[in-house]
Design goal:
With 257 residues, this protein is α/β, with parallel strands linked by helices. Helices cover 39% and strands 24% of the residues.
């Protein structure tokens, strides 16, 4: 699967969805980052932010594309939509991550709106939260317990921001992941608003078939989907229990309960 994540500035993507992107990379998906500006107006020179973003992309195992737009002045325009549309086509994006549109930063808002217009033909679009968001109402959560450390390491690559920007706080990012995890009934999570999200249920079925084939061959079950046999006990006609074997399938992000 081809995944495109869009951020207005270096570090936006890592703050919003690095844990999910690491999950994509782990299953063999191709991930591309589109960073619209170099963040040259931040508390550092633009060269350092470019190098930091390159290191973060390498940590994520992702390709990196620069948008070349001016920091603080990304236009909400046809030209911006056309540019993002061209990147979507070039990388063959099937899933898009971008900013949520309710935000105090004008670049985040413009990037969100232009991304949603450019992604009008995609059926899986997810919007992540930024520290400057004014409203955020997620309905989809991704388990990042196994990738939280990698997310923090990628974010730490943006050293100029971690040291000089109060909004880029590694402890706060971890606390936020714990909060969303609690909301989603898991340990750590990233949360997303979803303009569109098509759930391919057959993906789970094919994973079950792969695991059953592996079990039949005597191989260890290491898939994301586990299968466990158990007995259901129903009441018999004369007070005797009737036992029958059933199969429980559970999606556990790589762990068995």
């Amino acid at each position: 699967m081809n995944v495109l994540a869009i951020g207005a500035h270096p570090d936006d993507i890592e703050l919003g969805c690095a844990g999910a992107l690491l999950r994509h990379v782990a299953v063999g998906d191709k991930v591309t980052l589109l960073v619209m500006t170099t963040g040259e107006r931040g508390p550092q020179d633009s060269v350092s932010r470019v190098l930091e973003q390159e290191k973060a992309a390498a940590r994520l195992g992702a390709e990196l594309i620069w948008g070349g737009f001016p920091d603080g002045a990304i236009p909400h325009s046809r030209e911006t939509v056309t540019f993002i549309d061209s990147v979507i086509a070039a990388v063959g994006a099937e899933v898009l991550y971008t900013h949520g549109q309710h935000d105090t930063h004008q670049d985040h808002v413009a990037t969100a709106l232009c991304s949603l217009s450019a992604a009008r033909r995609l059926n899986r679009v997810l919007c992540y939260q930024s520290p400057s968001a004014t409203a955020f109402n997620p309905v989809v959560y991704v388990d990042i317990e196994d990738t939280l450390r990698g997310k923090l390491e990628a974010l730490a690559c943006h050293r100029s921001q971690v040291e000089r920007c109060e909004l880029v706080d590694l402890e706060a990012v971890e606390a936020g992941a714990r909060f969303w995890g609690h909301q989603a009934r898991m340990r750590y999570a990233e949360a997303f608003e979803v303009p569109r999200f098509v759930w391919d249920i057959t993906g789970g079925a094919s994973a079950v078939r792969r695991l059953e084939s592996a079990a039949a061959a005597g191989e260890a079950a290491t898939d994301r989907v586990g299968v466990r046999d158990f007995e259901l006990v129903d009441g018999g006609g004369a007070g005797e229990p009737i036992r029958r074997t059933a199969t429980s399938v559970y999606l556990v992000g790589g762990r068995r309960p």
